[in-house]
Structure formats: C-alpha cells, structure tokens
Amino acid sequence: MGEITMYLRTCNTRIALVGALTVAATFAVGCGGGSSGSGGNGGGGTGTKTTVLQTTPGGPFTGTIAPGRLYVASTAVNSILQFDVNNFSNGNLTPAATIVGQATQLNGPQFISLDTANDRMYVGNSGANSILVFDNVSTLGGNVSPARVISGSATTLNRVQGLALDTAGNQLYVANSGTNTIAVFANVSTLSGNIAPSRILAGSLTALSGPSGLLLDSTGSNLYVANKTGNSIALFQNVGSLNGNIAPAAVLSGSATRLNAPVSVQLDNAGGLIVCNQGANNMLTFSAAAGAPISPNLAPTGVVGGFGGGLAIVHPGQVFYVGKSDTLYIADTTQNGILIYNAIETLSGQIFPNREIAGPASGFASPTGVAYQVTTN
C-alpha cells in the first residue's frame, strides 16, 4: 500500500489527513449555492457536494528538511506576512509577524525578492509604481516604515511585477508590465528616491510583452522573463551588460508549449524550467534534458493541474522553489493560500498539492507574492 495525503475541504476548513491506502482520493466538500459540481463556496443555498477528484497522490515529504521563513505579499490588504515553517507546516497557520499599516507605504504589493545574507526584502509595489526596501525584515512587524523607497518619474516604474536580485552585482531587475520593459537598478542595496535605472531593456527586439515573473539564475548571467500577454518565456544571456533594444538569446513559445498567460518562472535543481500559467490554471515543467530548456515550440515534460475545484491551482501568482528540499511554493490569489508541491520534476497530471497554508488565521487576502528563506544549513 502506498502512503498518500488526503485533503478534506468543508466550507472554509481544509483538513489534511495522511493514511495508507491503495489509491489517493481528495474530497472537496462545497458549501452554498451554485452548481453541484463547483465544489466551491457559493452564496445562498445549503447544498453539500462530495467529489473524488484526485487519482494520483502528491505523496508525503521525503526530501531534505529545510526549516525557514515564508514571506507572503497579501495584495488586497497591503501587507507582508511572515511564517516560521518547515516541510510539514500545513493548514490554518498564524503568521509570526505582519507588516501592515499606513507607514509601510504598501500599495498593491506584487512579487517580492529576498537578500537573505543581509536580511533585506524588496517589494514590487505596483499600486504606487515603487520599490519598497525593508532592512532587517525578519525582525519587523506592525506599522513600520521601509528603510528606503525607489519611486518617482525618473525611475520609469510602471505596474511593477516581478523582481530579480543580483546580490553579487548589487543590481535589481524589475519587470514593468505597463511599458513592456525591464529596468535595472545598480547599487540597489543603498538606492533611494527618484533615481533613474542604470539600464533598461526595451524595444521591439526584446520580445517583452506583459513581463511578469523574473528569474536570475545562480550565475547572475541568465535572466528568464515570463511574458504574460506574449505567452512566452524569454531568456537573456550575459544580462549584466545588456542595455536597450536587445533581442533575447532564446524564446520559448508556440502552441506545443501550452503557455497561457505565464506569470512566474523558476528553475529546479536539475536546471529544468517551472512555469505557472494564470490563463490555464496549471503548472508546466520543462526538463533540462528535453531541450535548452528554452527553445521554440518545446512541449512541456509535465503538466500539473488545470482541472479546477478543491485545492487545485486556480489563479497562481509568484512561485518560489526551494532547492534544498525540492519544494515549490505557489501564491494563489483565488484559493487565498499558498500551495506547496514536492518533487516537482516528477509530477504530471491532475495532482493536488502536498500541503496548503490557508485559513482565516493566516491573514491572507489575495496573496500574490511569495519568497522563502532557509534558516538552517
């Protein structure tokens, strides 16, 4: 018999059960009106629906334990929440700290980026076209002011989405979805005010179209861009010196890719690509062995989700991959929680997450940004 995780959802309560069964079953118990097959939380009516949705288990955690701090940007209430978690944290958790209030200047926070060595957080503040910088972020809570704010007309910030930090080069890459550009700020650890970016990737050759999630690989040389409206992933190589109307080194696009409003991108331990599709409510994986993995019209090696209901991926925002534990965290604004998958490169099909952090105690309201700091070696 195989060990499986079984989730029971009843109204706004989600309970994770672990047991030894020959098959995996995820039950979604819906509350309220609406169609009997929705499994959701409709208004009016009192109907109850139980549906077996999952036929393949996500499975229990089997990797390296990596306790840490989980940070979540809760867009609808302009807050940053911090959770002390490990590889077994699950359910209706209470945050250890919450940054919230007028002094924070949070206004529609989107994606976030951590400088873990310096305990610093950068927040893409889309509602105010700014970048907020919080120093000593692990110690902060309440109505605290950011240490620095990058904002003003000179910054060119416009509907800020993804951020990618080059810690060695002390540079921050910022996706401006409003202008289809990538702004690059040098000396970002001390930068503040109405400062022009040191470089800008912009123009027809860049293939930028609704840039959303950004990922800078461990070398600091390769920048991956999820183009939400362009249904593509662009790769810029030797990005540390690029400026202006520069074509990407490669673009992943085409019908075979199944890209549909991709909003976030990560790399797994093997160098494979992980992409969350907002338009198709799913996650795609592209194995490093299958291609660059950036090449035209490359088919994904794995497709997870896309079937709705229960705890499935519905409206993903930022994703964050923790290599030490081979764990992926997905901020899902519609599920109002953080979906957590293990062993990403092995998954495909209608698979629910291994765990989900959600519930009224969490304080989530449209969580969009997520980042994780491993706190033990």
Strand order of the largest sheet: 2-1-3-4
Q: Note the run of SSEs as H and E.
A: EEEEEEEEEEEEEEEEEEEEEEEEEEEE
Q: From the 3D coordinates, which CATH architecture of the largest domain would you assign?
A: 7 Propeller
Mean pLDDT: 83
Helix/strand/pairing class, anyone?
A: mainly beta
Overall CATH class of the largest domain: Mainly Beta
What is the total tally of β strands?
A: 28
| Assembly annotation | single chain
Counted by DSSP, the helix tally is 0
Total tally of structural domains = 2
The CATH superfamily title of the largest domain: YVTN repeat-like/Quinoprotein amine dehydrogenase
- Overall form: globular
**Poorly predicted runs of 5 or more residues:** 1-59
User: Nearest-angstrom radius of gyration?
Assistant: 20 Å
List the keywords.
377 residues; mainly beta; Methylamine Dehydrogenase, Chain H; 2 domains; four-stranded antiparallel beta sheet; 0% helix; 43% strand; disordered N terminus
